[in-house]
């Protein structure tokens, strides 16, 4: 995707180094950071310089390679796995990528491990781009079907939550890929962007992406979705996922569940777009079993933004003594999900639906 005239992925290599965009600085500043050690990669994920399930996975894979370059011994491999695994608890793509690297390089001679891990990390990144493009094509068919019901020139209105765009993946995004392809094909599409408190990934990242791609969009507060749907202003919701269970429960950014409830009450189709690497085939009951990240209370008690003076500032919005809880994700039960948009097609949010598209993965669990 492009920022201005320059094409970007969210992660790339420069010589021996891994380059990322520090997403905590967006949309105010485009800051490129170079990662050269395991600790750099772990910090980038934990401090959310990179975030979004697929990008967390790709960064972790490069983190393994950086660790093995410094020390390829078995103990180093185990430490790197554990260090990266501890960075964030909810997105399953993290474990998926770490497992893939450990499996590929664990049986090699130590001297061959770093190069093999670096190559695999590159493959994971490239494959993510191709996968998201396929998710986009499969989701595009849904947008096209709705567009056919509209008068010429009338936009298809999509509501999305958080950022499941190219910044959350290596490129294209999951939820945004169908939107980008529709836009590129000349189909009028408009996106309602939930601001996504507390960290405002919708306002800071999704709006930034859509704007740079020229996609018509409107930023709304998180609680606007129900009202918009009651008034027929939303044709479909598309969100991403951090972990989807074998039975189709969708874990995603906090507030996704409320959008799904509002969508069901108003007969609005609600889709989650995700790659197979986001499915946790071992988990059946999302509400009971998926670990939900709880982050620092200051993300809720404060807001960060650019002041009119042009400086980025952090201001308190709650009394100093007010206790705060900060649950970062929630689980939308499969019964509220119209369908899962994957790289192999669109399926029902159910065990049969997922196993039908990914029989070899469903069998392995
Ligand atoms: O806390 P974040 O910013 O990592 O949360 C990201 C999301 O919730 C995304 O919707 C999800 O990772 C899907 S990314 C394609």
Automatic annotation (TrEMBL):
It catalyses: 5-deoxy-alpha-D-ribose 1-phosphate = 5-deoxy-D-ribulose 1-phosphate; 5-(methylsulfanyl)-alpha-D-ribose 1-phosphate = 5-(methylsulfanyl)-D-ribulose 1-phosphate. It comes from the Bacteria. The active site is at 242 (proton donor). GO terms for molecular function: S-methyl-5-thioribose-1-phosphate isomerase activity. Pfam families: IF-2B. Keywords: Amino-acid biosynthesis, Isomerase, Methionine biosynthesis. Pathway: Amino-acid biosynthesis; L-methionine biosynthesis via salvage pathway; L-methionine from S-methyl-5-thio-alpha-D-ribose 1-phosphate: step 1/6. Substrate binds at residues 51-53, 88, 201, 252-253. The record marks 162 as: Transition state stabilizer. One of its GO terms (biological process) is L-methionine salvage from methylthioadenosine. InterPro entries: IF-2B-related, IF-M1Pi, IF_2B-like_C, Initiation_fac_2B_a/b/d, M1Pi_N, NagB/RpiA_transferase-like. Its EC number is 5.3.1.23. Belongs to the EIF-2B alpha/beta/delta subunits family. MtnA subfamily. Catalyzes the interconversion of methylthioribose-1-phosphate (MTR-1-P) into methylthioribulose-1-phosphate (MTRu-1-P). Also catalyzes the interconversion of 5-deoxyribose 1-phosphate and 5-deoxyribulose 1-phosphate. Part of a bifunctional DHAP-shunt salvage pathway for SAM by-products. NCBIfam families: eIF-2B_rel (TIGR00524), PRK05720.1 (NF004326), salvage_mtnA (TIGR00512). This is Methylthioribose-1-phosphate isomerase. It comes from Jiella endophytica. The lineage of its organism: Bacteria, Pseudomonadati, Pseudomonadota, Alphaproteobacteria, Hyphomicrobiales.
């Amino acid at each position: 995707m492009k920022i201005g005239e320059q094409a970007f992925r969210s992660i790339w290599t420069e010589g021996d180094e891994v380059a990322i965009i520090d997403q905590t600085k967006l949309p105010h500043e485009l800051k490129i950071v170079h990662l050269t050690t395991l600790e750099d990669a772990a910090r980038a994920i934990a401090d959310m310089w990179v975030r979004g399930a697929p990008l967390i996975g790709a960064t972790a894979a490069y983190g393994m390679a950086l660790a093995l370059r410094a020390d390829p011994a078995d103990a180093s491999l185990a430490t790197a796995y554990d260090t990266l695994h501890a960075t964030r608890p909810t997105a399953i793509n993290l474990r998926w990528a770490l497992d893939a690297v450990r499996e590929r390089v664990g049986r090699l001679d130590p001297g061959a491990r770093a190069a093999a891990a670096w190559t695999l990390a590159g493959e994971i990144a490239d494959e993510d781009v191709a996968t998201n493009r396929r998710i986009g094509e499969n989701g595009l068919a849904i947008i096209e079907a709705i567009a056919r019901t509209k008068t010429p020139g009338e936009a298809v209105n999509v509501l999305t939550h958080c950022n499941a765009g190219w910044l959350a993946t290596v490129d294209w995004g999951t939820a945004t890929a169908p939107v980008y392809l529709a836009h590129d094909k000349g189909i009028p599409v408009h996106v309602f962007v939930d601001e996504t408190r507390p960290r405002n990934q919708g306002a800071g990242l999704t709006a930034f992406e859509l704007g740079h791609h020229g996609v018509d969009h409107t930023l709304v507060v998180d609680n606007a979705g129900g009202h918009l749907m009651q008034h027929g202003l939303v044709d479909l919701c598309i969100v991403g996922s951090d972990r989807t269970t074998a039975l189709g429960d969708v874990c995603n950014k906090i507030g996704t569940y409320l959008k799904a409830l509002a969508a069901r009450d108003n007969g609005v189709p609600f889709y989650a777009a995700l790659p197979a690497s986001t499915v946790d085939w071992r988990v059946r009951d999302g509400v009971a079993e998926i670990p939900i990240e709880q982050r620092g209370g200051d993300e809720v008690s404060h807001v960060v933004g650019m002041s009119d003076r042009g400086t980025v500032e952090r201001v308190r919005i709650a009394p100093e003594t007010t206790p705060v809880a900060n649950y970062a994700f929630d689980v939308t039960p499969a019964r509220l999900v119209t369908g899962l948009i994957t790289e192999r097609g669109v399926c029902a949010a159910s065990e049969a639906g997922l196993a039908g598209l990914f029989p070899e993965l469903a069998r392995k669990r």
